[in-house]
Automatic annotation (TrEMBL):
InterPro entries: DgcN-like, DgcN-like_C, DgcN-like_N, P-loop_NTPase
Coiled coil: none
Pfam family, any one: DUF1611_N
Organism: Desulfosarcina alkanivorans
Protein name as annotated: EBNA-1 nuclear protein
Domain of life: Bacteria
Domain D-glutamate N-acetyltransferase-like N-terminal: 43-140
Sequence ranges assigned to domain D-glutamate N-acetyltransferase-like C-terminal in this UniProt record: 147-345
Length: 372
C-alpha cells in the first residue's frame, strides 16, 4: 500500500520559473516527499505552474497570496515550503508574516535557507502554540555525527557519475533527477545523492546540503553518502548532484563533490545562452571546452556527455546547438526536459557495459512476463 505524500504549498513570490525560484520549480517538476497543491507568486497568479515552467498543464495553480490559496484549495495543506533560494541569508518582514500566518493555520514549515527558522524565538513560540513543526533542510548534523574523509570510496564498485555544471542554477539537479528516473524505469537500480537543499526536499534518501557544512567535513560527508548509498541500496549506478561549477570563483562545492565522490565519469550541464554568471553580472561564463579541461585536469574523471539548459533558447536553437556540440566535442548532448535522457543513458551504457547488459536482461524478463 502506497504511503500518501504530505501536501504542500510552495512560496516563491516574484521568482517562480526564475533562477532564485529553482527550489519551487524542482518541487513542481518532481517530488517523492510532497504533493505540491499550489505555488504562491502574485506576479503569476491564476496561471498553471506546469505551463509556466515550459511544460504541459499539471493542475498546480499559482496563487496571489496565502489567503487566496487557502480560500481556493479543498483543504489546508500539510506544509508551507519556502521555495526560493536567494543569495541573501534572511527573509523580509512580509515573508515572516506569511510564515507566522501559515503556522496559525496549522501548516508545518519547510525551510531551505541558511537562516534557521527553528532557532527563531517568534517562530518557536508560534510553532508550539499551534502544534506544528519547523524543518530546516540546511541545518547540518551535530559535530559528533559528521564525517571526515576515510578512503572508503574505494570500496564502491558501482559506477559513480557526477552531474557538474558551468554555473549555479543551470539545471544540474534537474538533469540528475530526470536521469535517475529514466535509469530506474529501464530496470537499472540508480540512486541519487543530493548535495543541496532542493534535492533533499524532492526526496533524495542520501546526501546533505554541503554549503551549510564546515569545510573540513564537506569531502567526508559526500564520500559517506556515496558509501552508504552503495552499501544499503546495492545500486547499479550512483548519481551525484553537482553544485555551482569547478571554475566558479565564489563557491567551492564542485571541488568537494569531485574529491568526495571521486566520480568515474561526469555529465556537464551548460546554459548556452547565458553570457554572465548567475548573480554575478561582472563575471563572464566559462566555455564548455574550458570547463571540461579544468574538470579533467584536477580529477581522474572523464566528461562523458553534455546536458543543456534551454533558457532563452528556441526549440530550433537547442536542436542546432546539440548538433554543433556533438560535432565539436564528440560527446552525446541533450536537453533532458525537451529531448529526454536517452542519449545520456546510451553514453553511460557505452562506458559501463554492465549497465547495458542489465537493461537487456530487464527487457527480456519484461517481454517474457508479457508473453506469459
Amino acid at each position: 500500500m502506497a504511503i500518501a505524500n504530505e501536501t504542500a504549498l510552495v512560496y516563491c513570490e516574484n521568482q517562480f520559473g526564475l533562477v532564485d525560484g529553482k527550489t519551487a520549480s524542482g518541487l513542481v517538476r518532481h517530488s517523492e516527499t510532497y504533493t505540491v497543491v499550489g505555488v504562491i507568486d502574485s506576479s503569476l497568479a491564476g496561471k498553471d505552474a506546469g505551463e509556466e515552467l515550459g511544460g504541459e498543464k499539471n493542475g498546480i495553480p499559482i496563487f496571489s497570496n496565502l489567503k487566496d490559496a487557502l480560500s481556493k484549495l479543498s483543504g489546508v495543506p500539510d506544509c508551507y515550503i519556502y521555495g526560493k533560494a536567494p543569495l541573501e541569508a534572511s527573509i523580509s518582514m512580509d515573508e515572516r508574516a506569511l510564515i507566522l500566518e501559515a503556522m496559525e493555520n496549522g501548516m508545518d514549515i519547510i525551510n531551505g535557507l541558511h537562516q534557521f527558522f527553528s532557532e527563531d524565538r517568534e517562530f518557536i513560540h508560534m510553532a508550539a502554540r499551534n502544534a506544528v513543526q519547523i524543518k530546516d533542510i540546511r541545518k547540518p548534523p551535530q559535530l559528533k555525527d559528521l564525517h571526515v574523509f576515510t578512503g572508503k570510496r574505494s570500496e564502491v564498485t558501482a559506477p559513480v557519475i557526477a552531474v557538474l555544471g558551468t554555473d549555479c542554477a543551470c539545471g544540474k539537479r534537474t538533469t540528475a533527477v530526470e536521469l535517475n528516473k529514466a535509469l530506474n524505469s529501464l530496470g537499472i537500480n540508480s540512486v541519487l545523492v543530493a548535495t543541496g537543499q532542493s534535492g533533499l526536499m524532492q526526496g533524495a534518501m542520501y546526501g546533505i546540503a554541503i554549503d551549510a557544512l564546515v569545510s573540513q567535513f564537506v569531502v567526508g560527508e559526500i564520500e559517506n553518502a556515496v558509501v552508504q548509498a552503495f552499501k544499503i541500496e546495492k545500486p547499479d549506478i550512483i548519481l551525484v548532484e553537482g553544485q555551482s561549477a569547478v571554475s566558479h570563483p565564489a563557491f567551492m562545492g564542485s571541488l568537494g563533490i569531485l574529491k568526495g565522490s571521486n566520480p568515474d565519469g561526469v555529465i556537464l550541464q551548460h546554459p548556452p545562452a547565458r553570457k554572465k554568471r548567475c548573480d554575478f553580472p561582472n563575471l563572464k561564463m566559462p566555455t564548455v571546452e574550458s570547463e571540461i579541461k579544468l574538470i579533467e585536469a584536477i580529477s581522474q574523471a572523464e566528461v562523458m556527455a553534455i546536458a543543456l539548459n534551454h533558457e532563452d533558447l528556441s526549440d530550433k536553437e537547442v536542436t542546432d546547438i546539440i548538433a554543433i556540440y556533438e560535432k565539436k566535442f564528440h560527446l552525446a548532448t541533450t536537453d533532458v526536459l525537451s529531448h529526454g535522457c536517452q542519449k545520456l543513458v546510451h553514453a553511460l551504457s557505452h562506458h559501463f557495459p554492465e549497465l547495458r547488459r542489465t537493461i537487456k536482461q530487464k527487457r527480456c524478463i519484461k517481454t517474457h512476463a508479457m508473453a506469459a
